């Protein structure tokens, strides 16, 4: 069964599937879907949760052993597997198919979570086996036209009364970043509690946080201003901003730059792709500047750095998250550090 994140709530009201695949790049929607599945599982007695992270060299036997072992504390288990890559190879594909074929029972629920799947992976045997045995939850980006409604619904859920103009202020501030929108609402709720938020109060809140915000950090990195980026990052750390938000804001543009760099290397007109990637007019010069700073190879090396930072944030690495984020910002800001080859040449008209 294939369902959207919007359909998941209705699905969980009726049933709990034995296996789920949650895929997508919108971290907020992915987290909300995962939480919904966990809540449903817990309500049905799945009080023990085990988590695994798939990376190169991962031993799928550890998952099988956990599934078969008895627990002293709970009879039912929720087993989550986070894929750091959607390319899990032949052994991974066979392992997932084995889970779907012979390891599903009333006392186990499996949840596999990963980034957006490309078309070839969507057609793979392991994805099809999950789709047949359980549910594949596809997370799609929220269209800009739907973003005001999305923000308004979450504001209402927190008891915040915000005018249409106020909602639009938030839309323009977050530029499609759902995690930033959630952070903005959380900040308003913590500072003012539930109730009406005037347009003036909202404007002041946005202005007060404009000095050290993740958007300024990303823009400084793209503009090549490494010293300013380091200064802003230090300010964000001092304010206690969640590293997840910092990384997600950076990854959002890094993914786009990887795609644009690959397109440029194939001779495509990058300017024509800006609308497809929802790049706002005022940010196009920054994207152009950054794109010409690094080679296609370097952009993918930078993206792989983000994966390592994500693992560190989740506690699967002992490396210092702040140091890793600083290194990422400096790498983004500086001229190509990994290759002496000429950086991306843009095809623009």
From TrEMBL:
Gene3D superfamilies per UniProt: 1.10.8.60, 1.20.272.10, P-loop containing nucleotide triphosphate hydrolases
Coiled-coil positions: none
Catalytic reaction(s) noted: DNA(n) + a 2'-deoxyribonucleoside 5'-triphosphate = DNA(n+1) + diphosphate
Keywords per UniProt: DNA replication, DNA-directed DNA polymerase, Nucleotidyltransferase, Transferase
Ranges where the DNA polymerase III subunit delta C-terminal domain occurs: 216-337
GO CC field: DNA polymerase III complex
Location of the DNA polymerase III delta N-terminal domain: 20-137
InterPro entries recorded: DNA_pol3_clamp-load_cplx_C, DNA_pol3_delt_C, DNA_pol3_delta_N, DNA_polIII_delta, P-loop_NTPase
Family named by the database record: Belongs to the DNA polymerase HolA subunit family.
PANTHER family, alphabetized: DNA POLYMERASE III SUBUNIT DELTA
Protein name (record): DNA polymerase III subunit delta
């Amino acid at each position: 069964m294939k369902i959207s994140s919007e359909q998941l709530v209705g699905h969980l009201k009726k049933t709990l599937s034995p296996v789920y695949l949650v895929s997508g790049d919108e971290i907020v929607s992915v987290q909300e879907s995962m939480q919904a599945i966990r809540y449903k599982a817990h309500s049905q007695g799945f009080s023990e949760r085990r988590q695994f992270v798939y990376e190169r060299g991962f031993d799928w036997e550890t998952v099988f052993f956990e599934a078969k072992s008895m627990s002293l504390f709970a009879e039912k288990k929720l087993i989550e597997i986070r894929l750091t890559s959607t390319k899990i190879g032949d052994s991974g594909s066979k392992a997932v198919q084995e889970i779907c074929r012979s390891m599903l029972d009333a006392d186990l629920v499996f949840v596999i979570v990963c980034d957006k799947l490309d078309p070839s992976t969507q057609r793979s045997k392991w994805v099809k086996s999950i789709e047949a045995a359980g549910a594949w939850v596809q997370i799609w980006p929220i269209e800009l036209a739907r973003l005001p409604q999305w923000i308004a619904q979450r504001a209402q859920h927190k008891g915040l009364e915000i005018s249409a103009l106020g909602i639009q202020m938030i839309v323009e501030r977050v530029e499609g970043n759902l995690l930033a929108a959630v952070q903005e609402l959380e900040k308003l709720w913590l500072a003012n509690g539930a109730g009406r938020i005037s347009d003036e109060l909202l404007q002041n809140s946005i202005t007060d946080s404009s000095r050290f915000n993740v958007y300024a950090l990303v823009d400084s990195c793209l503009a090549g201003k490494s010293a300013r980026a380091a200064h802003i990052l230090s300010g964000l750390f001092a304010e206690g901003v969640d590293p997840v938000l910092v990384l997600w804001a950076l990854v959002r543009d890094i993914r786009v730059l990887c795609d644009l760099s690959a397109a440029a290397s194939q001779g495509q007109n990058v300017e024509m792709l800006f609308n497809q990637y929802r790049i706002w007019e005022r940010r196009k010069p920054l994207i152009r500047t950054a794109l010409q700073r690094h080679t296609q190879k370097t952009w993918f090396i930078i993206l792989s750095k983000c994966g390592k930072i994500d693992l560190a944030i989740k506690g699967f690495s002992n490396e210092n998250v702040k140091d890793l984020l600083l290194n990422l910002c400096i790498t983004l800001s500086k001229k190509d550090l990994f290759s002496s080859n000429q950086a991306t040449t843009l095809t623009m008209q």
